[in-house]
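Quick question, first post here. What does this chain look like in 3D?
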Amino acid sequence: MTTAKMALWPRPDRHRSIALGAPAMIIFALFAVAPIAISLGFSLTNWNGVSPNLSFVGLANYSRLISDDEVLGAFRLTLAIGAAASIVVNVLGLPLAVLLNRRGFITRIYRSIIFYPLVLSGIVVSFIWQGMLATDGVVNEILGANTGGFPFLGEPSNAVVSITFVAIWHLLGFTTVMYLAGLQAIPEELSEASILDGASAVQRFRYLTLPLLGPTIGTVTVLIVVYLMRIYEYVLVMTLGGPAGATETVGFVLVLTAFSRNNYAYGSAIAIVLLVVVAAIAVFMLLVSRRSDYL
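> Answer (accepted):
Ran it through. Tokens below.
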């Protein structure tokens, strides 16, 4: 057998690989690629989501989107919430993971407590915090607010901060567990060697732990930002986009436009733009994480 023939992948193995991968690729195409393609097609029409009649309008929906103050404001708000929440959950999640990276029964209990919010769905979390942050809710009772209670959800700025806080509370367990897994994957021999070399705890974290956690930090950050760019349930349950539209995120405006206002084509255009923005952010963050000293 020649060297060229030996370098080739045997045909039976290639066919077997295609056969094994085909079901997954078919499922991906049906439930990921096809919906995107269909939404892209609808975004080029004037379909209202109900009528059997539709007309091709080209890029008219995208031209309208560029000058739509409601949609642009929703993008700005979503980016702001995503940036703030992702920074906080990363800043808090890593120290918590370091503190919980120990053996013991009490430590396991703390891990369960921190991770528990993530077990709940976003809808359940939103209902819980809506009741707690109401003017007559538990938080106002604990704070001893004056008659009428503090308007956590009744003022525009307070409502935005409250939704951001709930998102942080919900996702903190995810970042903590991911960083904890990354910490436990670091060989103990490296830490022991650094201790023998006289490195302090701060130096070990700075020059050993943080660089080795780079891939984990990059992955966690991308996943958190992608999730936060699609937030919808917090707004739907807690504020319904109010007060005065102050908490309308892109996801909320998208659903509102497509289904409540019967403008499915325009809603599809918003969805496609959101997809492009999220993909661009994810690619950018992955590139940055690969070039960074720590990520």
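DSSP finds 14 helices and no strands in the chain.
The chain has one domain: 68-291.
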